[in-house]
Design goal:
Keywords: Glycosidase, Hydrolase
Strand content: 15-25%
Region (Disordered): 467-494
Structural class: alpha/beta
Organism: Microbacterium terricola
Family: Belongs to the glycosyl hydrolase 13 family.
Protein name: Glycogen operon protein GlgX homolog
Shape: elongated
Amino acid sequence: MLSQEPERPASATFLSADLDGLGVTRDGDDGTLRVWSGEATSVELVLFDHRDLDWATHTLALEPVGGGVWSVTTPLLRPGARYAIRVDGPHRAGATFNPETLLLEPYSKGLVSGGHGDWRSVVVDGSFDWGDSRKPGVPLDRTVLYEGHVKGLSKRHPRVPPALHGTYAGLAHPAMIEHFLDLGITSVELLPVHAFVSEPRLLQYELANYWGYNTLNFFTPHAAYATEASRREGPDGVQREFKGMVKLLHEAGLEVILDVVYNHTSEAEIGMPRSSLRGIDNRAYYRQHDDGAYIDVTGCGNAVDTSTDAAARLVLDSLRYWANDLQIDGFRFDLAVTLGRDADHAFTSQHPLLRAITDDPALAGVKKIAEPWDVGMGGWQTGNFGDGWQEWNDRYRDRVRNFWLSDIDYARRASTAPVGVGGFATRLAGSSNTFSAERGPLASINFLTAHDGFTLRDLVSYDVKHNMGNGEQNRDGADTNRSFNHGAEGATDDPRILATRRKAMRNLLGTLLLSAGVPMLTAGDEFGRTQRGNNNAYCHDSPLTWLSWDHAPWQEELHAHVRRLLRLRRENPALRPSRFAHEHQTVPSASVIDWYDEHGQTMSGERWSNPAHRTLQYDAESTPETEAANRILLVVHGTERPIDVTLPVVDGIARYVSLWSSADEVPDEQERVYEPGAIVSLVGTSMHLFRAE
């Protein structure tokens, strides 16, 4: 649960100079390796032949230099050197030392595989010409996240050369950049690119960990995403291609956000192979009971223990490296609650590591996005991260899905929806009941879909998951999806059902892109991509998960709606306030909100909760600070019965200009003008956006 201790300055002993310079550093012709292990009795450096990774050419002993750090300096640690470490230590509960096991050095900037799970660290040169490339520094209020997979984004794109399909270079190809810019997103958020491996269970089923949430090393780009040409050059070639991708995206004005997995590693549960941290100092790096049994709050077999100096510093140093040496613009922290658990395994927003991530000058200006939950006790912490953090807002996701999908399903069965419009309105206006006034609406990362779960199209096409292809007898994946198939499970040729599904997608996208907060769009949802009802496709590296760029006319029409909505978001600052308004004072960069019912009258208290009245008019007026004044009116109608809506008569508004309607199959280019008090007819379950002038 959230710690109730009074706020106090974060202890940051892991920032001690004793832990500076871990890994390999170069000085002239020499290389120095520094490794931390609090319990080790000996540490060895083993160097290998460049071509035969089983041929050990040299073995050197590291010497203790204080603070648990072991060090050796040698000219053999030159760029391209293949190496591993061996660590010995005491035999007691929780210690898993073995002086014969070859281990990856945790700060390795490059890796090579000898096959059969056998890996070696590599010293990389790291040089790169960034030229005039700079981080775009997109302000939060203008940020639009686009979550995608490095391979899946370009694997099937017809204008990306085959040699670049599914690669870092392919992601930065002009055809991909053109799509990103034309769509209107600002920041590409990539599923994990830290070097990762597939779990043995998946390999037995001839499947793979496609998403990448099984980290092998926190400093090395995943080599399989590089082109064959770069892979032939070795780890330096892989790193150069990754940096080249970042450089080209930055030159186009696009940010690169990484989904990072610091909460667990691929070493999994006790009994699985030691590849790195487990063999270096198991008790310091993983959460465990006194008897050595792991405390697994991630559901993946182990949990990194960030209450220890070594683990916390490893995470912070990795972030600094990616943010500065590789010029990454931000991070989305998978299961971030795990990182904020203290020595008693309870979450606190004042955890020294969480504070250090937001306060570290080396990470200034870097976006920090928390997935605010894990699977341990007290693991759901949405709204409880501190200043400097944005959070995935699952309350937003669930309420919006309910309003447009499961509530409508319920109403078809029971003649009325289960709830009114009040909860939906709160989410639309920035989730002030979840995020404090100090943090404001931009603390909320609004999303309706993500890599994990149904795609947008599947959300409106399936009532239940269809995950048999994952090899777990449909037991995996979420059972509660708040989805609605609209009358047929999956594929159908019923034109009425298909039309209703298309409108439902437009309602969902309209809500997402017109809400206060930072929107996150899942790659492919702009085209209505399907995974055929699989809501946990993590193990499918196939056309099921790769984006298709061959689209039916209705998909191009949906794409046009997303482009229009994102343009309207840019042009209307009232839709993207930075702060919550205050009833008794003017707050710069806020939006002052008034709510009206379908008759154009101020919403009564009873109307907010009445399930028979799910129509509201959302009037938001910006309080200018850096942009021109702006005012919008968004009409939301949440039942399947058509309705006539009277536009409100409000002082200072002379007319309403129609900007977008979810009822249209194709966005209407005409900006029709309506007078205050005019009647606007809405079809069932629809939205209509106006600019108020």
